[in-house]
Amino acid sequence: MLGRLPACQNRKKAFEKLPSIGLKVAKNQIYETSMKTQLEPEDAQIIAEKVFELLKPYLSSRERSCEDILFDVPGLCEYLHVNSHWVHERTHLKQIPYCKLSNKQLRFKKKDIDKWLESLKTSSINDFRGKIKIIK
């Protein structure tokens, strides 16, 4: 900030010449136009909201990438709370979805395991919605 203009008769002319030399005037204060300006809180909020809207697709795709996790046998054992013998037995019987790598290592996609677990669910007796015939 350069300071206030001195009081003079040609003040209006002095103000008119300021933009041509790279200065601007606000409330009788002279500022260099190359200086950084401070944003109003409302402007900062608008900018933050627009940035958030632009980043939203990337944030949501990151959440989806959690479903693309690959487990190895020890990782799947930890996820399902079972031992490795159980996992190898289920893969041998082809009861659990898996991928076999070229070096004969097993990998399991989390989303496939979750679907498989959903398919194993049994409905409870209270979920029955049909009609019951009573036979005497």
Topology, please?
Layout: E1 3-4, H1 11-17, E2 23-26, E3 29-32, H2 41-65, E4 70-71, H3 73-80, H4 84-92, E5 99-100, E6 106-109, H5 110-119
Antiparallel strand pairs: 1-3, 2-3, 4-6, 5-6
3D architecture notes:
The protein has a domain at 68-119: Arc Repressor Mutant, subunit A, CATH 1.10.10. The model is unreliable at 1-5 (pLDDT under 50). A hairpin with a 5-residue loop joins β5 (99-100) and β6 (106-109). 43% of the residues lie in helices and 13% in strands. With 136 residues, it is α+β, with helices and mostly antiparallel strands. The strands form 2 sheets. Strands 1-3-2 form a 3-stranded antiparallel beta sheet, with no helix packed on it. It is flat. The chain is built from 5 helices and 6 strands.
Care to give the gist of this entry?
The chain has 136 residues and is α+β, with helices and mostly antiparallel strands. Helix content is 43%, strand content 13%.
